[in-house]
């Protein structure tokens, strides 16, 4: 489970270079506002309208946000991030729009630019604020709509835009394409593992992510070991292996659709009954919840996060692991997109229970777990560094309150952000992967 | 026509009509925007989620309690007090029986009326002070929030002053302010009185489908 820290540092350096790699946007400056408004118009439905109509400006959402808690900067109040969307709604869609047009000014390009930092670099769309709102306002969903509007107005921050452009134009992420996947598979085969790639038919299509191919290679190896151990009919596919979806993260629907449909079409061609998403937080909602809607109809296969799959196999008695021992005290960090946005809470805990560790929950856990600070693409946005650091400081206190020896999680970008924070603050607590723990302790 | 006759007659009918039509206009307007079909396979029931959040959201999660207790306590004091005043104060029940429902119900004794008035005032004053003093609420609040709070405060104050029913001018003032509040209501955030079950319900259904209890 050792991570090559030189590779990690190289990866971090590559992330810092991203803004220089971003191409100029193809949205003309004078069309930005109209592009954003077209998206807002298409996306706002009865749910969003009701939420935008219901806010009483109580400010409770700030008290749930890790960025506000750590900085006490009112600008970071979650509902404040929706001011642009709310203004559009009031002028163009609200039942009282005829009245609001007399009061509310038209949105401008400057307003779009002023919102960019709030919805991209200052929000991980973790959704914790939605748990405290007395009106039940789902702020995270509407931050995402705002991102979508800005994305189509050519205002994705440069670092995130570089990766979105790469995935949109070449289908690769950080340069990882079919050839790099085959190389990774060869490395695993050299270790004696069977790694099926590009089978014509298979029951299970296993996705991976660039992060696992480049950095967390042990997570990929562990996934291969588990699948082979279970003896199921599985494959990876060189045309559809990347779980990460930078179209979703950036809000650019064209890229989201192409990345998602590539997987859906390949899974259908394989006759797959199940698609397994790797330890990559947003990859789960991208396929599990948005995949069918992008496809335009129900998917003819099931979608599971790897942590969910492991848990199900353990709970149903098909996956057996050797207990590590109660002497190992661990806490589990729920990735927001898999837990709070996905409902996967019990399965990873069932795996940890089977591993026999002394599980210690953080003060805020499961649905109210604090985000790592790197979600929703913040880990590739240079301007988000202060936010990432703030979130890590809070998370560190949460972990230390448990007295655990290590943090286990099931998301590569959570691991990256926690490792970066640990490196910055000389924090020695190991940050471990759930699938790696299972892979290392198969019975 | 005297001011008193105006307040008891045409202005009452006008404000009540604007209130009813305005509330329905806004509710129907936002709910009729529709929703796209969600083709993802639900993990759990959206309807159960919508129902669950509507009950559970009355009770804040313990994780948040230490940071939000002032707003929650003040909010409950105000809303419970106001509800009791609105629906269980003897003069109000008399008013509903005569103008709205045609029947009445048991009223609070006068000592209880005074108690719930004080509770409601305490809650409202705490909420106004919090809005003014907390950096977050001060930043996100707009004119409408203050207009609504002040109007409600004045309606409650004149209502208490008119309780003895010894001064007609006080009763008319209370009626007039209440009618202004009715006129303002559909154009303001006070609409949350009617939108909150839908707002909670949409979120509860969204997360309920995903198997998350919010």
Topology:
The complex is a heterodimer of chains A (443) and B (214).
Chain A: H1 5-21, H2 32-43, H3 46-54, H4 66-71, H5 83-92, H6 97-103, H7 109-121, H8 139-152, H9 158-169, H10 178-190, E1 204-206, H11 210-214, H12 217-230, E2 234-235, H13 246-250, H14 253-270, E3 274-277, H15 283-288, H16 291-295, E4 302-305, H17 306-315, E5 329-333, H18 346-354, E6 358-359, H19 385-400, E7 406-409, H20 412-425, E8 431-433, H21 434-439
Parallel strand pairs in A: 1-2, 1-3, 3-4, 5-6, 5-7, 7-8
Helix pairs in contact in A: 1-9, 2-8, 5-6, 7-8, 9-14, 17-18, 19-20
Chain B: H1 3-8, H2 10-31, H3 46-56, H4 62-88, H5 90-99, H6 110-133, H7 135-140, H8 143-161, H9 168-184, H10 192-209
Characterise the protein shown here:
The complex is a heterodimer of chains A (443) and B (214). The radius of gyration of chain A is 21 Å and the shape is globular. Chain A has helices spanning 5-21, 32-43, 46-54, 66-71, 83-92, 97-103, 109-121, 139-152, 158-169, 178-190, 210-214, 217-230, 246-250, 253-270, 283-288, 291-295, 306-315, 346-354, 385-400, 412-425, 434-439; strands at 204-206, 234-235, 274-277, 302-305, 329-333, 358-359, 406-409, 431-433. In chain A, helix 9 packs across helix 14. Chain A is 50% helix and 6% strand. In chain A, the strands form two sheets. Chain A has a four-stranded parallel β-sheet with strand order 2-1-3-4. In chain A, strands 6-5-7-8 form a four-stranded parallel β-sheet, sandwiched between helices. Chain A has three domains: 29-155, Fumarate Reductase Iron-sulfur Protein, Chain B, domain 2 (Orthogonal Bundle); 171-312, 3-Layer(aba) Sandwich (Rossmann fold), CATH 3.40.50.1860; 319-439, Rossmann fold, CATH 3.40.50.1860. In chain A, 58% of the residues are buried. Chain B has 214 residues and is mainly α. Chain B has a single domain, classed as Up-down Bundle (Fumarate Reductase Cytochrome B subunit). In chain B, helix 8 (143-161) packs antiparallel against helix 9. The longest helix of chain B has 27 residues, at 62-88. In chain B, 30% of the residues are buried. Classes of the chains: A alpha/beta (443), B mainly alpha (214).
